[in-house]
Amino acid sequence: MKILHVITLAELGGAQSVVINLARKSIEQNHEVFVASSSHGEMWNLLHKDAVQIKLKNLKHSIGIDDILVVKELVDIYKKIKPDVVHLHSSKIGILGRLCFPKSKIVYTIHGFDSIRLRYRKFLPLEKALKRKCRAIVSVSQYDTVNLLNEKIKDNVYLVRNGIEDFAVRDLETESENILSKIKNTGKKIILSISRLAPPKRFDLFCKVADKLPDYQFVWIGNKEKISEIPENVMMMGEKENAHEYYKYADLALLLSDYEGLPMSLIEALCYSKPIVASNVGGISELLDENGLLVSNENLPEIVNSITFILANQNIYEKFAENSRQIFESKFTIGKMYNKYMDLYMYNTK
């Protein structure tokens, strides 16, 4: 089977991780895989070596006149490859792709419907207008599925939760051996957040929490920029190709966001048996079942108290850690995700 994945940005994020994982698994199962995206980004370095990379020079995150050229590029790619399945990821390429690819070939994954429903609501009418221009619309959480139904997008909606490789079973040597392990060896607790440095990811709130807990080390992975005037106990490590490996040295996963789908970074935390404190937004609640605490971004004391409650109570900590691993194994493996997508792909090719 020829599978074409198209995603707006090649910068590392949850949606890109899904593309990387699906591409690798598909190639292992002897399918032919093509990936098209913007020219620059770390995703390109992490794709399987046999995935055919197609860099769209005119594709950007913002909407503009260049999108006419992007549509032409996509049409030319389709004519050249003749894929059996076109898998669209993210809202912008979900719009452009449905305008130029045959609907019978398209599987479209919405990696967080709140980005359209709340943040960019002006594009919601267009999303509704194109709802039948694909064979399948995939939501990554029950939360998104309900909100799609509430917006009258319901006829071809399927739920496929994100899944990842079981990284925790591998013994990898990384540069974290020289950074976080040294901190951990001092006995200091490490609180890790893996996320892009974007306004909805609330780095400002992350720093406020860190300022209230000076005895803990707070670590942020995913920033491109260097930020000055941060608390002394905050370490910014930049972008890392295999950021999940640093969970080996973390004591707790923290994610404070205004919008989320089903965040890959927290699924990775489950894999590494880490308790979680996270904002009660999007599908995050579907990752927690006696393995962490949900918090409100508007309640700083609640966030601080949740972290200290888990880290200060060894019995609670061990229970939450064990439950995180069990949740991962039961729901969020790459095999479960891949099989569900393959069912959709096979249905598309009938």
UniProtKB/TrEMBL annotation:
Keyword Transferase attached: yes
Keywords, alphabetical: Transferase
Residue span(s) of domain Glycosyl transferase family: 183-326
Highest taxon of source: Bacteria
Signal peptide: none
Pfam families, sorted: Glyco_transf_4, Glycos_transf_1
One Gene Ontology molecular-function label: glycosyltransferase activity
InterPro entries xref list: Glyco_trans_1, Glyco_trans_4-like_N
UniProt keyword ATP-binding, yes or no: no
UniProt-listed SUPFAM superfamilies: UDP-Glycosyltransferase/glycogen phosphorylase
Coiled coil feature spans: none
Residue ranges constituting the Glycosyltransferase subfamily 4-like N-terminal domain according to the UniProt record: 13-165
Name the record gives this protein: Glycosyltransferase family 1 protein
Species: Chryseobacterium flavum
Lineage: Bacteria, Pseudomonadati, Bacteroidota, Flavobacteriia, Flavobacteriales
